[in-house]
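This part of the workshop introduces the protein records we will be handling. Getting from the letters to the tokens is the skill we practise here. An example says more than a description, so a record of this kind follows:
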Amino acid sequence: MAASRPPRTHGDGTYRREDFARLGEGVVLEAGVLVFHPENIELGDNVYVGHQAILKGYWRNRMVIGEGTWIGQQCFFHAGGGLVIGRNVGIGPGVRIITSYHEEAGREVPILHSPIAFEGVEIGEDSDIGVGATLLPGVKLGRGVQVGAGAVVKGSFPDYSVVAGVPARVIRMRP
């Protein structure tokens, strides 16, 4: 059995605007937003980040959020595997975007101590992610994709598809 490692802090999430890899004009970061590894986070012009959202950058890879994107309150974005969000994307409150997972290392190793694997997430421009949706590692959404509230999304979806459910599937194509 693997020995447990002592916990260590990831920091308190405080940041200075000059710490970002890029911070566009007109960016709004509401009260309570926590940012980790801002040196690997790029925010385009006119990005809005709602109250108590967490932008969890990582010591490697980038989080890139395109211009005009709106991010609701209490979202959690993890960018260990890389995260690219296109321009003019709407992301509802409570959305979770995850880019890592624990690999299976056998029954003798606690899942918590198994190796971590990383897969990036890409969201095409003009897309909309519904309240409380979860995007899992490796998701690739085309342009103009609409994700239903509460969906759990895994895999790739084509331009202008509407996806919903657990697991998410295409329910129709946008006109």
In short: The chain has one domain: 17-173. Residues 17-173 form a domain with the UDP N-Acetylglucosamine Acyltransferase; domain 1 fold (CATH 2.160.10.10).
